[in-house]
Every structure is written in structure tokens, then in C-alpha cells.
Amino acid sequence: WEGEPGKNLMMSLLLDTSFLEVSRQFDLSIGAALGVWSALRSAGLENARIKWPNDLFAGARKVGGILIENSVRESRLRSSVVGIGINIRQNTFGNPRASSLNREGCTVDRDTLAELICTHFEHFYLRLRGGEDLREEYLAVLFGRDEEREFIFRDQKFRGIIRGVSEGGQLMVESELSRKIFEIKEISFCF
Hints:
- The chain is of the alpha+beta class.
- 23% of the residues lie in helices and 36% in strands.
- It is built from three helices and ten strands; from the N terminus they run βαββββααβββββ.
- It has helices spanning 25-42, 110-129, 135-140; strands at 8-16, 48-51, 55-58, 61-73, 76-87, 148-153, 156-165, 171-174, 179-182, 187-189.
- A five-stranded antiparallel beta sheet has the order 1-5-4-3-2. Strands 9-8-7-6-10 form a five-stranded antiparallel beta sheet, with no helix packed on it.
- The longest helix is centred in the middle third of the chain and has 20 residues, at 110-129.
- The chain is globular and about 50 Å long.
């Protein structure tokens, strides 16, 4: 992550996730992504989207990301650390697909954004803890869903349409020949 001092928000949240079975760990990614997405929308980023599995986009540019580290005991999660990074005022990047809230016309300070993230994140965390299925909300704001796009799989380009995300968190892509599911880091978007 490129982060110029004082220009971005990098934070971690420690969560009790003992209510989730290991097989449902992607549900936490969904809740976390929706919480940060909702906070960005509340801060004024109108074109905020979630790019599978856990990147935050403004249009077709990445403005943030989420990394989750889980502690597991037997078949259940025990706790999780959710790391969140959002580019706020940084204006130069080595990656041409990277951007910041400032470059995308959203002016918010770090403290306000941190408060918004905590508030919105808690909302989705409590819904997840209460047993709600957040998948449809996630799919509704998923970057590239139901749009024909170019992907790379095993060094081969192909055209396909994102149709959804499996319960295990795999991306479901339909091409003219078939419908397949892909693991994280197994497929990449062509921009």
C-alpha cells in the first residue's frame, strides 16, 4: 500500500468473530466491505463500489482496501483483525489505477472518515452477528457485476460477466462457453 505520511487513513479493528464458522469467513469480508463502502458513500463518494473480494473503488480506480486476518479454533473463528486502508489526500501513485478520495472529488478528513467507518462497520457487523445474510447487498454494489469484462486466468485473457459470489467467497464468472468459479488471486481484471 502506498501511503504518504498524514495523507491517508490506515486503521485496524479487532473483532470477536466466534459466532462465525470457518466456512462462513467470507461473510465477514462482505460485512467489512459493506461497512467501509457505506462510510465512503456517507462521506460523499457517490461512485463508490466494492471490487471483489475486498477493494474499494471510485469508478474504475482503487481508493482503498481491506485485509482480514482470522484466528481460528476448531471449526470456528475466534477473533479477526480487519485492516483498512483508504487514500484520502494523496495525489501521486506508482499505480495508474490508484486514486484518492481527494482526486475523486470527495473532501473528508481522516478523523471524520475513521468515525464514519466505525459507525457504518458496526452496523453491518451487528447485522452479521445477528445472523443476517448480507450477500445481496454486497452483490448490488459489486464492481463489474452483470457487465462484460476482460479477465486473465492462467495467463490467458477471456471475456466474461460476473454473476455473483459463492458462499465460500469465490467469484462466479460466466463466459460464452461456461460458468466457472474462481478463487482469490486465481483471476484478475483487465483494465
